[in-house]
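Issue 218. Parser rejects a valid record. Input:
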Amino acid sequence: MYRLLTIALGAIGAMSLLAVVLGVGASSEDTGPGGPAASAKTSARSESAQAMVLKRDGSGQFNLIASANGSEVAFLVDTGADMVALTEAEAENLGLMLDESDFEPMAQTASGVGYGAAVTLDELVVAGQEFHDVEAVVMRGLSTNLLGQSVLGKLGKVELKGDSMVIHRR
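Output the parser choked on:
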């Protein structure tokens, strides 16, 4: 599990570093006065009961709002991430109590070693589908919560169609 986690976090770290270097990311101009969460709320719409459609935001990313442990959480949908990754601030908002000793070296990134802490979300609700005991990681330095394949794969088949991401529900 740690090997897979290390690979996933390495990819996350590399993508995050690349985004910072290239200046890619949401700005207040892209997301409007409500910030990323307000933009994410409007980016998802239901095509039918069997599919969910997400539209690209101003930075070319796909975002959605989910419920984690009963709280609304904005996620970047990351098909390249193996699992759910949370920022330290979000973990704190969700009441996930972490100690300094919980963080371990989990990934080698271009900027150095990435430290993360494994956590379990009691409940995650995405597009009306409930998931329980979801393994996730809280990553130091992560600026956005990531919804990875551990949940996307359970939601259904992911397909890109132009500026839309269609998730065909199982």
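Fixed in the parser; the record now loads. Confidence is low (pLDDT under 50) at residues 1-9, 13-47.
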